[in-house]
UniProtKB/TrEMBL annotation:
<dbReference type="InterPro" id="IPR011990">
    <property type="entry name" value="TPR-like_helical_dom_sf"/>
</dbReference>
<protein>
    <recommendedName>
        <fullName>HCP-like protein</fullName>
    </recommendedName>
</protein>
<feature type="region of interest" description="Disordered">
    <location>
        <begin position="25"/>
        <end position="57"/>
    </location>
</feature>
<dbReference type="Pfam" id="PF13432">
    <property type="entry name" value="TPR_16"/>
</dbReference>
Length: 384
């Protein structure tokens, strides 16, 4: 394959009152490879630094309710007794407010029988709490566990910063990641380092570390995140124009490791409407990849647009409506706009406006939604 086709060709002009408006399809794959962390994530916001941690905590605000810890323990999200965890957190906050001595966290853990891995678990629980002070305490615990040598804390901190497109003011986790990758020859650390370098635009270095993580003699596919590392490798190769290499990376991630985003990328390298194209899209969509749901809706819509009989109700759009509604419900803006256009085409103007209102709340499609609303207003003025 020498060139990369668009994810789905733009559909023909809409019928009736929308004769000059085309339905929206997903961003083409080359652009997606350059701009998006993964197909299920919308366009990233500008990079921001993690704010400095406060020197003091108010226990009333930062401590989670005991019932919350009990629920986490009961659900299996925490392998520590809730009461014991609560007591540890209370003492942690007390010491954090009263001492500047280094290494006090490790001493406190020994007293309470809490391991650095327990701290990572508590960090995850706290960062799902609603209050900012609770989330900040969770981040503090993760940083402390990382400093104590718990590599899973380092990995989670770095992965979280990648997901949020943030840069830590505290460079210590990145330094530890580098040591784990370069000296410890840890495959997971190598893969994370590759992803960080990719985010910094250092694609050649990123590709080298990603391959070290997944290929012998330094790596394998037997570590958490190996499938994601292959997807990143494929994305870099796409940008370099190596379609064959990219497809091989995506196939390995999809067919050997069952990675949903890899199925999505693979679908984009198939002939539109072919059996393999739809099978890969269905694989990705069934695992929650929003672009795949949207593209399946667009495929169904394309079939309907080729029919002589035009839809007169939303039910006439069949599975196109179903796929767009599922993607839109999870916040995929282009599906919202397509639903608005479909509603408008069958005379359900109010429903169409409601979808446009929702789309206008999303930065990535705000301009498209605003322009569509403006055209509708102009059409209404011309018809009166």
């Amino acid at each position: 394959m020498t060139s990369l086709r668009r994810s789905i060709p733009l559909l023909g002009q809409c019928h009736k009152s929308l004769s000059s408006r085309s339905f929206h399809t997903s961003q083409n794959l080359a652009a997606a490879a350059k701009q998006k962390p993964s197909p299920r994530v919308t366009k990233a916001t500008p990079r921001a630094r993690v704010p400095n941690l406060p020197k003091q905590y108010n226990p009333k605000d930062a401590l989670p309710p005991l019932a919350f810890l009990q629920s986490a323990a009961k659900a299996g999200a925490m392998d520590l007794e809730a009461e014991k965890a609560f007591e540890f957190l209370a003492k942690y906050l007390e010491r954090a407010r009263s001492t500047t001595k280094k290494g006090w966290e490790q001493d406190l853990c020994k007293v309470h029988g809490v391991t650095p891995q327990h701290m990572v678990t508590l960090s995850g629980v706290l960062r799902r709490c609603p209050e900012h002070s609770q989330q900040t305490l969770g981040l503090t615990l993760a940083l402390a566990a990382s400093e104590m040598g718990e590599k899973t804390a380092t990995f989670e901190l770095i992965q979280s910063s990648i997901n949020k497109n943030q840069v830590f003011e505290n460079s210590a986790p990145m330094q530890r990641l580098g040591l784990l990758a370069k000296k410890g020859k840890d495959a997971e650390a190598m893969a994370l380092l590759g992803k960080v370098l990719f985010g910094q635009g250092k694609e050649d270095e990123a590709l080298e570390w990603l391959r070290k993580a997944t290929q012998p003699p330094t790596g394998s596919l037997e570590f958490p995140g190996s499938a994601d590392a292959l997807v990143y490798e494929g994305r870099i190769l796409l940008k370099k124009g190596d379609m064959k290499g990219a497809e091989e990376a995506f196939k390995k991630a999809a067919l050997e490791l069952d990675e949903p985003t890899a199925y999505f990328y693979l679908s984009q390298l198939q002939e539109s409407g072919s059996s393999t194209h739809e099978v890969y899209l269905l694989k990705a969509a069934s695992s929650g990849v929003l672009e795949a749901m949207h593209n399946l809706g667009a495929l169904e819509l394309e079939k309907i647009e080729k029919q002589q009989k035009k839809p007169t109700s939303m039910a006439d759009y069949g599975m196109a409506t179903e796929w767009f509604q599922v993607a839109a419900a999870d916040g995929f803006g282009m599906s919202m706009i397509n639903l608005a256009l479909m509603c408008k085409a069958v005379g359900q103007d109010e429903d169409g406006l409601r979808w446009l209102n929702k789309a206008q709340q999303l930065p990535e499609v705000r301009d498209q939604a605003t322009n569509t609303r403006r055209k509708w207003t102009e059409q209404r003025k011309m018809s009166t």
